Amino acid sequence: MNLPPDSVAAAIDPNPATAQMAVALAGDNWPRLLLVDDEPRLLSSLYELLRDRDYHLVTATCGSEALAQLNKLKFDLVLLDLRLPDMSGHEIMDFINAKDIAADVIVMSGDVGIEAAIGALKRGAYDYLRKPYSREELLKTVENALAQRKLAQDNARIASKLENSEKMYRYLVDSSPDIIYTLNHEGKFTFVNDRAQQLLGFTREELIGKHYSILVHDEDQERARYVFNERRVDERASRNVELRLKCNTGNGVERTFNNTLMTISLNAIGMHVPDQDIKQREFFGTYGVARDITDRKRAEEVISYQAYHDILTDLPNRMLFKDRLGLAVIQAKRKLTELAVMFVDLDRFKLVNDTLGHVKGDELLQLVALRLKDCLRRGDTLARQGGDEFTIVLPELRDRQDAKAIADKFLECLHKPFDLDGHEVHISASIGIAIYPSDGETIDELLRHADIAMYQVKALGKNGHSFYHNSMLDVSHQKIALEQSLRKALEQNELEMYYQPQVDVATGRIIGAEGLMRWNHPQRGLLSAGEFLPFAEDNGLMLPISDWMLGALCRDLLLWNAAGGDAIRLSLNLSPQYLDRGDFFEKMRGALTRYGISPAQIEVEITENICIRNPQYAIEQLNKLCQLGVSVAIDDFGTGYSSLSYLHRFPIHTIKIDQSFVKEIHDEQGHYPVILAIISIARGLGLHLVAEGVETDVQARYLEANGCTTMQGYLYHRPISLSHFIHVLQEQNRMSAPASAAPVMQAPSMIAIQA
Asked: Response regulatory domain: from which residue to which, for each copy (predicted)?
């Protein structure tokens, strides 16, 4: 590879600064060569000969320059002329040896005397070339010297690794937490480390020469005999055999099994001496490692329990419930009896959870589980399905009245208020019941039909129970119909964008708006985004809906700007699915270009969950948007997987305070540290700040007093249609007409797909 012309000049130039610049311009991993010759033509010829190779080349025209370069840089190879104007090459080699400089030397000299060559070789020269030398001879000598140097470095590195590995091995053995032992052919201990005393209480002296059976629990003696007396080797040797070993209390009294015996996992392999024919092997003992796994066994029991039980309520979980339901079905089929499956969903639980917080919500679930359990018969199974849903199997029913009686008990016990640290909470439940075998003969059928019956109760006003019947299948079919209707909504232009203004409370002016999707359903009327977008995400409709939304927003912006709203920002929530699609950036750029919308008027909102799905990919996509001119906001900050690192890694311009924090503001003089922390973060990082869900004057005054002046919420405006929004803009412009000459600061915009 050729060096750039500037680099060549720098390499030949004896000036150290330019020579160092040449080194910096070349490859970092190339060998570095120092060329020393007082004849400029020979030095230039040597440089030209080597410049096409992947080498760093540094030159010196006298001994003092060579010493200066050797003091400053590390070289792999020195090509050295013995006759220099200020000193001999031998003196330079003496300097290299005295300073212990790790560089090989190839001497090039026109001196025909044998003393010069002997002197160079005695000083450790790799080779001695007489001038004039052939091009091939020099190149081959340089290549061989560098190759030998690399081999020596590799060998040294390998030797260092081996030495470190040996040290680490010795350390691990010396400080092993396991019992390391050897047995002779009679099964007697010939070696045991000190760990045996720490774990079992037996000293090394007490064990050496004793048979291994003195340590093994009586019930495991037969297994131990098989393990230690087998003659297998290699892969057939005994591995991971669990034995219970006795512990010594120190006074000669053995502890009982229940509270003192330890579980030990042993790896053992036989030791053999091959005979002269190497056809048979003489067994002479066993060596192995015994590891204390008592804690692991206890942990496995806990893990096994937790795998089949809900951690919060300690009830059987979905997996264990299905096992017990399966056994109950088999038993009912054998005895020709009925059984009932109940699906219980708590009413109003989400309200309690959102109002009092998740900690109180979890406490409520625990209290509900206790009450429900008290209503069951012996042999019934209550399980937590997940969230606020419970399932029950009632085996050996006499008739349906048994199931109805228990469902009535459930409703009665839940009707009583719950006391959550002074908060009196009232809830109810919707209960669906499926009977085997009339409502299904398999686990999945019974659960599905009980679930359908439960949703029927929900639809009829909640707080009740219902037995499944076939007509309820229509409820399930409605979900399929909703999917079909949503697909048609795109084709029939039933979707519409609404806008919720964002207000600068200092001036009272609208400075932005968040775009929210609505569905003009032909039968159900106007539906909010929360009623259909989650369903769209689950059914693969989010991408076509997002494409429609992007075009609709751009079309609305044209009308918006024509009404004098070009200084007002647009906020659009971005679906994670839409960001994950590789052509999102192209879609955005194409739409803005097609409609002539300025990217500076748009801000894309992302949630914190986008930041953890595929952070590197998200960073790349968002950086593209920023290069285009679109800014980025982080929505619902603090409610998900908050991390300040996101604010540094991601190109964030705006933070939005989630309405769940704003709702907590009840006192204008109160202290709400989470909100104050978010405001401080935004101020410290120079980020724009917007508060969502502002509904009261107290909330607005508290936020404004603490530095948040941009707000949206019902206190100012509800989400409104485009025509209404344009009317509001025109009215605002009309009211401020006398001050129209004053410049208006344009805030960054925001974009997102509300889900």
From this structure: 32-146
In contact, 269 and 233? CB cutoff 8 Å = yes
Report the DSSP pairing between strands 509-521 and 569-573.
Answer: parallel
Q: What is the pTM of this model?
A: 0.43
For residues 479 and 674, the answer to whether their CB atoms sit within 8 Å is no
CA distance linking residue 160 with residue 166, whole number of Å: 10
Q: pLDDT digit string (tens) for 510-558?
A: 999 999 999 998 888 898 888 788 778 767 788 888 889 899 999 999 9
Rounded to whole angstroms, the Cα distance separating 32 from 54 reads 9
CA distances from 146 to 25, 56, 90, 151, 481 (A): 21, 13, 21, 9, 76
- Of the listed ranges 82-96, 344-358, 421-435, the one predicted with least confidence: 344-358
* Distance between start and end Cα atoms, the chain: 56
CB–CB of 468/432 below 8 Å? yes
CA dihedral 543, 548, 550, 556 (to 10 degrees): -160
| Overall average pLDDT of the 603-628 stretch | 77
Closest CA to 216 of 259, 262, 270: 262
Q: Which CATH architecture has domain 5-154?
A: 3-Layer(aba) Sandwich (3.40)
Distance between CA atoms of residues 257 and 254, nearest Å: 9
The fold of 179-298 is: Beta-Lactamase (3.30.450)
